[in-house]
Specification:
- The chain has helices at residues 16-27, 31-42, 48-62, 81-95, 114-117, 120-124, 149-158, 174-182, 197-202, 222-236, 257-270, 280-303, 307-314, 317-334, and strands spanning 69-74, 101-105, 133-137, 164-169, 185-190, 211-214, 245-248.
- With 345 residues, the protein is α/β, with parallel strands linked by helices.
- It has a 7-stranded parallel sheet, sandwiched between helices.
- The chain is globular.
- It starts with 15 loop residues before the first helix and ends in an 11-residue tail after the last helix.
- It binds guanosine-5'-diphosphate (GDP) and magnesium ion (MG).
- Magnesium ion binds at residues 81-82, 105, 107, 109-110, 168.
Length: 345
C-alpha cells in the first residue's frame, strides 16, 4: 500500500494566471482542459488535495452554486443503459442548444466509448457541438459496480462545468446508496423478463428510482413485462401518491426515445439540484469507512461530531480528509482513540 515518497511536480501550472487560463478553457468545455483537471480530481495522492483546492477556488470565485442537475442511471448490466444514453444525450443536446452533458460511466461492462458515443449519429444529423458532450469511463470499485472513491471527486469538478452530469452505474448494494446521494434524480433501466411480478421485485431496488425505463421494447415479451412491472410497483411502493413514470423504450429501434428525451429535458429544467456541499457528508463517511473502517466511523462521530460538522469545521472536503487523518493518527498515537473492546471502567 505504502507509496514511495517522491517530490511531486504539481499537475497544475504554478502561476496563478496560467491556472486561471486553464480553468477558463475548462469552463469553455475544451476537452483537453477538462481532461487535465479530471486528472487532478482522480488523483488519490494526498498531494493532489492542494491542487483540487486551487481549482475549486478558481471555479467558485466567479459564479455561485448555480445548479448542475445530476442524473443517476442504474440497472443490471446488459439492460441497455449505455445504448440508451448514447442516443438520449445526442438528442437532448440537439434539442437544447444551451445544454451540456458529462457522462461518467462506472458500469464495467460498458462497451460504449466517447468515440462511438459521438460516432455516426452525430455526423448523420445537425452536428452537435462536440464540446457539449463529455464522456468519462471509470473502473468500478467492486465487481458489483460500486462507485469508486474518485467518482465523487470527478463529479465535484464536472458539476461545476456542465449543466447536467449523468452517472451510469450498476444498481446493486452500496452503489445504490451512493447514487441516491449523488444524483438529484435516479432512473432505473430494466429489460423485459420472461416471468412474473416476483422477478421484478427480486430484480431489486424498485423502491429507490424516481423513474423506470423498460428498455428493449422491441422484444416480444415486452408487453407482458410492462404490465408485470406496473403490478410490482403497486406492490412494492404502496405509498406513492401517484404511480411513478414508466417509459417504454427501444435503444435499438428508437421507439419511445423522443418521449424519454422530452421527459429528461423537462426534468433537467424543473429539478432543483442539491448544492455541492450537500453531497459531501455521505462521501466523506464512505471515505472514512474505506480508509479506517468501523474505528474510523466512531472517531468521526464521537471525536469530530459527525461528517457534517466536521466538514463545516475543516473548510471543505479535501481539508476534512487531511484533518481527519491527522486527528485519528494523533488519537491512536496517544491511545486516546476509540480502541476496540476497551470498555472497562
Ligand atoms: N433488442 C434490444 N437490444 C438492446 C437494446 N438496447 C440495448 N440492447 C443490447 O443490449 C446489450 C447491452 O447493452 P448496453 O447498452 O451495453 O447495456 P448496459 O450494460 O446496461 O450499459 C447490447 O448488446 C445492446 O446492443 C434494445 O432496446 N433492444
Ligand atoms: Mg453500460
Amino acid at each position: 500500500m505504502a507509496r514511495p515518497t517522491v517530490v511531486r511536480v504539481s499537475a497544475l501550472p504554478d502561476a496563478e494566471d496560467e491556472l486561471a487560463g486553464l480553468v477558463e478553457r475548462a469552463r469553455g468545455l475544451e476537452k483537453a482542459a477538462v481532461s487535465r483537471l479530471i486528472g487532478v480530481f482522480e488523483d488519490s495522492r494526498p498531494t493532489a488535495a492542494d491542487d483540487r483546492a486551487r481549482v475549486l477556488a478558481a471555479l467558485d470565485a466567479g459564479g455561485d452554486d448555480d445548479g448542475c442537475v445530476v442524473l443517476g442511471v442504474t440497472g443490471t448490466p446488459g439492460s441497455g443503459k449505455s445504448s440508451l444514453l448514447a442516443r438520449l444525450t445526442i438528442d437532448a443536446l440537439a434539442a437544447d442548444p444551451d445544454l451540456s452533458i458529462a457522462v461518467v460511466a462506472i458500469d464495467p461492462s460498458s462497451a460504449i466509448s466517447g468515440g462511438s458515443l459521438l460516432g455516426d449519429r452525430t455526423r448523420m444529423r445537425t452536428p452537435v457541438d462536440e464540446r457539449r458532450l463529455y464522456f468519462r469511463s471509470q473502473a468500478s470499485a467492486t465487481e458489483l459496480g460500486g462507485l469508486s472513491p474518485s467518482t465523487f471527486q470527478v463529479c465535484r469538478l464536472l458539476t461545476r462545468l456542465f449543466a447536467c452530469v449523468v452517472v451510469e452505474t450498476v444498481g446493486i448494494g452500496q452503489s445504490e446508496a451512493d447514487v441516491r446521494h449523488l444524483a438529484d434524480r435516479v432512473y432505473l433501466v430494466l429489460q423485459p423478463l420472461g416471468g412474473d411480478e416476483v422477478q421484478f421485485l427480486k430484480a431489486g431496488i424498485i423502491e429507490v428510482p424516481d423513474v423506470f425505463i423498460l428498455n428493449k421494447c422491441d422484444e416480444p415479451s415486452a408487453e407482458s413485462s410492462y404490465h408485470q412491472l406496473k403490478g410490482s410497483l403497486g406492490l412494492a411502493r404502496p405509498f406513492d401518491a401517484e404511480p411513478p413514470e414508466i417509459h417504454r423504450t427501444s435503444a435499438r429501434t428508437g421507439a419511445g426515445l423522443p418521449e424519454l428525451t422530452d421527459a429528461v429535458l423537462a426534468a433537467i429544467a424543473t429539478t432543483t439540484p442539491r448544492r455541492h456541499a450537500e453531497r459531501e457528508p455521505h462521501f466523506l463517511e464512505r471515505w472514512v469507512e474505506d480508509e479506517w473502517g468501523r474505528q474510523g466511523r466512531r472517531h468521526l462521530v464521537d471525536v469530530l461530531g459527525g461528517a457534517g460538522p466536521h466538514l463545516a469545521a475543516s473548510g471543505g472536503f479535501d481539508a476534512a480528509q487531511v484533518v481527519f487523518d491527522q486527528s485519528i493518527r494523533a488519537a491512536l498515537a496517544t491511545g486516546a482513540g476509540p480502541a476496540e473492546g476497551n470498555d472497562e471502567g
